[in-house]
């Protein structure tokens, strides 16, 4: 019988090496596979990118809501009328040498510190911090017309804070920098007490809320100036120039009912300059101390007070008035010094 089958070939030889057909990918298959791998990588990259974008967007919204994002706002978009300023004599500050220095710095180096604004009752931007920077840029725009001064870097506070919190935020920066006088800090308290949107109108309590971070002694001085400013009102033409000790002494005398308050107001209203105001206040304190003095008071150590007239430091106590300054008094001609002393004595006699 033939070993071949009807198809004409015999049994396969399985004893030798088995040859296998090549399974290598052809050009078309390679292209298809490469395109599929690329599509998968692209899809994964897009998914990751979308995830990162969503996270960044969320973080940006949170930062914007918390006021940590700086924005370039047009000066015309910002108003300053909703929150009283924490500075007195704003017109004088606006034309001061310090304002000129700030304008020169911004002109040369640009705005380095942002201002802070909040959304007012009408939805517009209201200034909270940075009145000097805002004023400097406004003046530069008016003076030069340069478009670079039309915008200002600002931090937008979108939190729905209550009124008292905004007062605290306004004064916080200058208080930390010790840039406010006691009269200015007291004026903020008075403005807050008169603000219908502030809960509570007791000035003493508001001092504690507005200046909680300050030492209790400083808060005591602020309360003294609050009493001083509310009692004397507009008769004080230069409240910023009243020294801490003199202001506290005058307030103490007023609280104790000593001296003629009406006469004091009249004298202050007639003052021609800051130095004259200091002299009037010092005279009031001196006169108040002499009224109703008892033997018990006389037996106590002598009290004194100090104030400045220009660059001169004046220390006054019972029977003594000491003037210290950079002037070489020994080099002043005798007749000139004598005229000054006579004028001083004549002023005291008035």
From TrEMBL:
GO terms for cellular component: chromosome. It comes from the Bacteria. InterPro entries: Chromosome_partition/occlusion (IPR050336), ParB/Sulfiredoxin_sf (IPR036086), ParB_N (IPR003115), RepB_N (IPR037972). GO terms for biological process: chromosome segregation. Gene3D superfamilies: Conserved hypothetical protein from pyrococcus furiosus pfu- 392566-001, ParB domain. Residues 76-144 form the ParB-like N-terminal domain. Residues 1-49 are annotated as: Disordered. Signal peptide: none annotated. PANTHER family: CHROMOSOME-PARTITIONING PROTEIN PARB-RELATED (PTHR33375). This is Chromosome partitioning protein ParB. CDD domains: RepB_like_N. It comes from Neptunicoccus cionae.
